Amino acid sequence: MATIEYFAEHSIGDASLRAIATGIGSSHRMLIYHFGSRDGLLAEVVRAVEAQQRETLAILAVDPDAPLLDQSTRFWNEVVEATLTYAPLYFELSAQAMQRNPAPSPCGPT
């Protein structure tokens, strides 16, 4: 998703849907159509990044005959690479949540 890469590079801040849309080469109306709101977009970003990490783990677990140390090292390297890219995004979303401005859960209201 282009939005994830955009946020990883530019952060979320208080960017409006219009600013985000311009940054990813879309329109704010398309973002509203697909995600309903800025919060809906942020929830999808969280869901998509988490899904990427789960896919990485699943792919690395495909070879059960590989030594555990090799599997663990490969997973660690993948996680570190993703962390270098996406950690600021996680911290920013966490900070918003701690300031009572949370992005909605990707699982819906609790």
From TrEMBL:
UniProt keyword Glycosyltransferase, yes or no: no
Coiled coil: none
Keyword Coiled coil carried by entry: no
HTH tetR-type domain boundaries: 1-53
Keyword set, alphabetical order: DNA-binding
Chain segments annotated as transmembrane: none
DNA-binding region ranges: 16-35
Signal peptide interval: none
Protein name (database record): TetR/AcrR family transcriptional regulator
Organism: Kribbella deserti
